[in-house]
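Lecture notes, structural biology module. Today: joint structure prediction for complexes of two components.
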Amino acid sequence: MKNTKYDLIANSHKSEETRKKNAFIAFITGGLIGLIGEGMIELFCLNFSMSRTDAGTLMIVVYIFLASLSTALGFFDKLVSVCRCGLLIPITGFAHSMTSASLDFKREGPIYGIGSNMFKLAGSVIIYGVVSAWLFGLIRYLIGGSI
Amino acid sequence: MTTYYKNVYIDDTATVCGPYEKKGPLRRYFDKCYDDLYIGEDSYEKAEIKLVRTSLKILLKKANIDKYNIDLVIGGDLLNQITASTYGTYGVGNGFIGIYGACSSSVLGMIIASNFIEAGFVNNCCCVVSSHNLSSEKQFRNPVEYGAPRPDSATFTSTGAASCLLSRKKTSIKVESSTIGKIIDYGQNDANDMGRVMAPAAIDTLKRHLDDTGRKADYYDLILTGDLGKYGKEILIDYMRDCYNINLKGNYNDCGTMLYDLYEQKDVHAGGSGPSCGALVVYSYIIHLMRRKKIKRVLFLATGALFSPTLLYQKENINAICHAISLEAV
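The predicted structure, tokenised, for the full assembly:
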């Protein structure tokens, strides 16, 4: 049952929207993550004479490790409350979603707990990541003729 | 449906809370506060069970009654299969009823208990409710450590267990009447604004209680809602004034905004929620005031959002319910 009078009154008591401020903070912190990542790639390329592709992969591994470690030590969620979604959208957020879900279900054991709940949040990212990669690959093949 | 009682009294109450509630303004009224959310257990669910157990233990000690002499135990909480109540009350009393009214469980339990006592089926009844911030986070929202940013209208599930012993024995606080609420659907579906979801239920039950009893709002020294939070509270005041011409002047407050210091404790956003939120405030602070005759008549409206993540994802609205109980200092 819809009550227009109620909606009218309720709308005048809404919390203040902080979306613009959050988006700005996320833009800065997310950008910083990208900047540091790029710095890491340059560092690996120069110091370990790696190819750019290998250095990129190593950078991702480093980020995944750091994010998972800070989730396990319990301060990633505090960082998120400061940095907003700037930390959740990059690969750090993906690692964090898996580690935090595993931590939640560790008491239910390795099979019924961690194993079956680890991808609770990350599952959607993986499945739609794969599906969209396939779709765009197909489009590119049809337009460009080769992959 | 409003029912009057002649022989039901609150014998004693016990409240146990977690670290956030300890930092709140009502800390000195609680019987026991824990500094850690695990409470010496290895999971949050077990911690909630321990909260229930501890609160019952304190209640039995305060009321000076043996656990085998409790006729009936009524328990409710937010966990699946209300496990905190079923495990936590094990071994206490000669009968158990598990209830689910989401955050309205505290008053629902008291109403059922009062009916049993008034009818003469039992002499005393113990009602207990509990909630744990992180066990509810895990069940209803994201993993505990995820910490996704939430809007200011979101409420914070309180950690604690509150129990009360109702009996036929005359004491200084009487259960005077109660109104059982009905399920309300105003087309609300924002899980991050539960105050807005539950306010219609509180409005409906409050209006029906006043109509049934023929009382005015100022008959009560204090009208309390369970967990509407900052915004829900404002909505209720405005709606009652605009639509029913009922002015809730200085005698209305919301337990969710009383349990925490909303200026100092920013983490709680719009205020507390959960079955234990209203019960923690009423069973400690309000009962304390009533015993000292600072206030005489209190109407406690426990609001509950009958919220299921599954049905919300299936595009159903969130229903709400609210039960009211009127307490009188005699």
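Point to remember: The mean pLDDT of chain A is 89.
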